[in-house]
Write a structure and sequence with these properties.
Number of domains: 1
Largest sheet: none
Strand content: under 5%
Distance between the termini: 42 Å
Order of helices and strands: HHH
Helix content: over 70%
Shape: elongated
Number of helices: 3
Structural class: mainly alpha
Low-confidence stretches: none
Number of strands: 0
Amino acid sequence: MQIPASVIVAAAVLMALPFGWGLGVLAAYLLAGSNFGQLPVATVPIGIIAALAFAFWSRFTPITRLKVTFGGTVAFALIGWLFA
């Protein structure tokens, strides 16, 4: 039994939300350093929009989009857990 592509894309979209949040926080950290203050208010929505755009982008296969968003989410969660 094969999983339909729409289910895989839906999972990639769900994984894109925490992945985009991590991208936004990483962008704020790279722009302003460890004392970034309120900068994530501007960068997190941009990161989420970029991650959602990637999750819906049909250039890559659905499983590749899921692997990237899931891997990024896990990586940001581990980094956050290690440095918190």
